[in-house]
Amino acid sequence: MKPRDRLRIAAQKSGRLSDAGRDLLARSGLRFRESRDRLFCYGETEPVDLLLVRDDDIPGLIAEGVCDLGIVGRNVLREQSLEYARRGERAPFSELRTLGFGRCRLSIAVPQDFLYTGPASLAGTRIATSYPALMADWLDRNGVKAEVVTLSGSVEIAPKLGKADVICDLVSTGATLAANQLREVASILDSEAVLAGPAEALQDERGELAAQLLRRLDGVLEVRDSKLVMLQVDRAELDQVVQLLPAANAPTVMAIEGNAQAVALQALCRGAFSWQQLEDIKRAGARGLMILPVEQMLA
Ligand SMILES: Nc1ncnc2c1ncn2[C@@H]1O[C@H](COP(=O)(O)OP(=O)(O)OP(=O)(O)O)[C@@H](O)[C@H]1O
Ligand SMILES: O=P(O)(O)OC[C@H]1O[C@H](OP(=O)(O)OP(=O)(O)O)[C@H](O)[C@@H]1O
Ligand SMILES: [Mg+2]
């Protein structure tokens, strides 16, 4: 492979990972000039270019050295890793970061009247899936012999068409399964968008560019998952409230002018708050509870 002095990132051209992937790159300070065909976008702010492709092609592009990094679903990356493993080879790409969007699971689903009591119930069945390597691996690990029928799409319709007895496909809300009268019985992989890169560290200038990009990405991911919580609470109830906060560090507790009984509290918290958590915090004595997004953060 010829040395390159610009880094190349592959992302899905159009689909479930496109918008959030582009947004993440933009937040990491990357701006691209859109070309007419929109397949190759020249990086204007950094020597980092973007290639817009089908998601299934991303691991292969990394394997061939055409791209250095890629935003792809773990389901696609693992499937293609397993194809190497089943040939006794080591995959030339790996998962570098989890990106927190495109969450779904790869699940086995059966028709409503299928009696499923565990993996052994699948013995001798035909299983339709677009993920034959992941499916075969799961069957092997569970000691089940079944026929894997590989379909590239519309997997959910396979049982109705008589092409398979059960299916294994991506599920998020479960609406597609319900619409096809299928019932989810086992999940074989939890997936989300990941940043993929070569298994071996990049040589030439690209190594440093990739390391810099990863540092920025880590900052963006940390901020995205952080919230600033502000509230007031009586001193007597302070400990109780603090215990309910998923605070990253010890919260800052401040005096309130003219009110010796209460304090103001400020805490950096990780993850989203559920309504239940908010109710619990309020019930524990918090007043004027505010949850603010964090724009940027410097450690
Ligand atoms: N229902 C879902 N909810 C959340 N994420 C999903 C869902 N379905 C798929 N994904 C994730 O998004 C990725 C891309 O899904 P999409 O349906 O856009 O792919 P595709 O049809 O294979 O697109 P392409 O044209 O690029 O090949 C999947 O590989 C998976 O990681
Ligand atoms: O559990 P749900 O929320 O219904 O999501 C699951 C569906 O989403 C994906 O397909 P998508 O909608 O992306 O269409 P595609 O088959 O054309 O890729 C996946 O292949 C399932 O069919
Ligand atoms: Mg695809």
UniProtKB/TrEMBL annotation:
Regulation: Feedback inhibited by histidine.
Taxonomy, superkingdom: Bacteria
Domain ATP phosphoribosyltransferase catalytic: 54-218
Pathway, per record: Amino-acid biosynthesis; L-histidine biosynthesis; L-histidine from 5-phospho-alpha-D-ribose 1-diphosphate: step 1/9
GO molecular function terms listed in the Swiss-Prot or TrEMBL record: ATP phosphoribosyltransferase activity
Cofactor(s) for this UniProt protein: Mg(2+)
Catalysed reactions, as listed in the record: 1-(5-phospho-beta-D-ribosyl)-ATP + diphosphate = 5-phospho-alpha-D-ribose 1-diphosphate + ATP
Domain Histidine biosynthesis HisG C-terminal: residue ranges: 225-295
Keyword annotations: Amino-acid biosynthesis, ATP-binding, Cytoplasm, Glycosyltransferase, Histidine biosynthesis, Magnesium, Metal-binding, Nucleotide-binding, Transferase
Subcellular location: Cytoplasm
Enzyme Commission no: 2.4.2.17
Keyword Nucleotidyltransferase recorded: no
Protein's job: Catalyzes the condensation of ATP and 5-phosphoribose 1-diphosphate to form N'-(5'-phosphoribosyl)-ATP (PR-ATP). Has a crucial role in the pathway because the rate of histidine biosynthesis seems to be controlled primarily by regulation of HisG enzymatic activity.
Family, similarity comment: Belongs to the ATP phosphoribosyltransferase family. Long subfamily.
Official protein name in the record: ATP phosphoribosyltransferase
Species of origin: Pseudomarimonas salicorniae
